Structures are given as C-alpha cells and as structure tokens.
Amino acid sequence: MSDEQKKVLTTNSTGNPLPAGGQQPENKNEFWKSVGRFFASIGGIFASMHKTITQETRGTSALRVICSWFVGLVFIFSSITKGIDPLGTAYKVEEYMTAWDFFGISFTGFVPLAPFLSMALITLEFLVGVMLLTGSFRKLTSWLLLLMMTFFTFTTLYDAISNKVSDCGCFGDAVKLTNWQTFWKNIILDVPTLYIFATRKWPRKKKFERDIIIAILAITAMVLFGLRNINNEPIIDFRPWKIGNVMMDNIDPDAQMTCTVTYKNKATGEFKTMDSSEIPVDSVWQAEWEWVGTENSEDPHLIKADGFFVQGTDGQDYSFEVIGAIDGPILITTIHHIKDVNEQGVAAIADIKKMAEERGVTFVMLTNAEQKDVEEFLQKNNLEGLEYYFGDEKGIMAMMRSNPGFIVMRNARVKDKWHYRNVEKVKEFPFEDYRCNY
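Structure (tokenized):
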C-alpha cells in the first residue's frame, strides 16, 4: 500500500488524523446527527413493539416489576453511596459548576448552593428508587424517573465528549466509572425506564395514604442519614485515607530513587545495565559503548493518594516526615477552607493544641491557604506556635471532609480520624501507646 493510500485511510477530509479504531464523524454536527439517529432507532424499535409490550398481561406485568426493581435498586444503591459522603457529592457538583458553561452561560454563581443541591439530588434519587420498589405514586414516579434519566443521559454524554470532569461521581467514591462507562450505564437504564413510563397508565388501586407514608419515610430517612454524614466523617470511608490504610510503601528514611541506564557494545552487541552512578567516565569506554535507555524507579516515599503532598514554609517537601511519622504518632488538623472554619472548629483546634502540649504529642496543621491567611488565622484565634504545612485543596478534602478535621499518622498508617465535633474522642486516643515502633 502506498504512503498516499495510507494517508487517505488514516485521515479525514480535512487532513486531520483519525483516532484509532476506524472512521469517525468529520465534525461535531455529524457526530450529533449520529447520536440523534441512534436514539431515533431505539425510539423506532420501541414504538413498533409498543402495543405488544405495553398491553397488560401476566407476562408484561412481571416485566414491569423486573424493570422497576432493577432501576429502583440501582437508584437506591447510587443514592446511598452518595449519601454516605454528601460533602463529596457537593464537591463534585461544584466541579461541574466551575468546569461547565453553555453558550457562554456560567454556573459559578450557584456554587454556594452545591451542598443543598447535593442533598436534594441524593434524596430525590433515593425517593424514586423506593417508590419504584414499592409501586408508590406510579404516574408521578414514572415522570420523575423519565426526567431524571433524560437529564443524566445527556449530561453524561456531554461530559464523555468534553471530558471536562473526569468522574461523574454517580456512585460516590465507592465505584469509579469512566465518563463513557457512565454514559453507557445510563443507556442501559434508559431501556427499562422507557418501559416503566410507557406502562404508567395501567389501572391500579388508589393507595394514597400508604404512598404518602412511604414517601415521607424515605425522605426523612435519607435526610437524617445525609446529615449524620455531614456532621461526622462518612460512616463508610471509600477514600484512600481510610483508617488502617498504609499511605507509603517504604518508610526507610534512607531509601532513595534509583536510576539505571542500559548501554550496548558497538562491536559485540552486548548489553549492560548499571546504576547511573556506576557509568565509566573514561573516553575509551564511552567510544565502545552506546547509550540505549534510562529507567527511573518510583519514589520509595510516594504517597498513595493522587496529587497529595506536604510542603513546608521553606518550600521543601515534608511528606515523608509528616505522613511517614516514623518517630512517633503525629496528629494533624486539616483545613481546606480556612475562612469557613467556625467558632466550634476553632475551639476544637485550641482544645487539641492544649492537650497535645500537655501530653507531648506532635500536633501540626495541614492547609491549602496562603501563608499570610494562615498567620492571620493563628494570630486571630490565639493559636500562635502551631506548626503548619501546605497541601493541595483536593488532596486535603480527600483526606478529611471535616473542616477542620483531625487525623493520626504513625509509620505511614492512618491510625484514626475524627470530625471536629468529636473532639472528646480525639482526647481519648492512646497516643502514648503508639510511641513504640509499630
């Protein structure tokens, strides 16, 4: 095959290279036309079978129950995984609002509403799931389900194409899906959703009082569950900083990154691999051997949390010293929004600072704030002398949802963590027992 023929097969009409895997639409208009034809074909298939599958019989009734339970269970699972960590969902909503805009319209002005919208979405999703399982408010539930799935489907399609937000957070931190996996998951859910909607008018005995009670109980249960997890650390921790997790594979302070190089003998073809520090410097050896490649080992003190670091006021990295905590337990208070710390949070830090001084516990602060803001915060709240370090906002929020929060590290292992409302539990922790080397 000639080079010209290869070029024709691997580029489109504009001369731009095509992605691997075959022909792609030439432009966005063609892509959206393809999407439209896809949904139209699904609609056509459904319409052709409409009379057969929507006529109420024993078989179609069973099919509706299966569809309702399938979608209902997915909705309940999704809402519970998000309800375990409502603040995490709120951060995801904020991410969407700051990353997206439609025709120049920005959503950043709605960022303060993210916590409310998070709980509203979680509660509505749980409510729809429960109503699907119990057959409550059949018509209303069908409409709510259709509207939600339409919104979810087109939102995830746009997200998959634009990739402005890497993870939709559909199942919180419990299950991670790529944007395209999320979109196809919604397409699968759309099929039973359409059937549930098409059969919404089947006759059913009125059970208004029962349905109202179920709806109220579902809303109350999820709101209380969500509030519990907002006012405490999540009841189940799906994040890297779960209690008991080891955040660093190697806590040997002398461990270093290694750099190996490979050379090839020009005459014999022999290969030699050695540490970069062992490369001979004489000109004769250099003339006989040619460089083939270099390989660097992973940082032995790498923190097992994406983008996480601990930086001192001198600009140096102190991740090993603070997270490794090889000389004894280190109690860290985390602050990811220093201007939002309330009086109770400040009182908790002051209380723990006093306790740490009395018991000889190493106590430091980790924040993403500017140094001048940290100094102002410490001076304003009579916390001078508290050692502090800097980190990434997202990294700190993944570490602790509470603002402030408290976490104990020893030998790179998460020993315990608490919301600032649970300050008494921090005081009860046996720091003295962890001064031994374990």
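The two ends are 66 Å apart (CA to CA). The CA atoms of residues 12 and 337 lie 48 Å apart.
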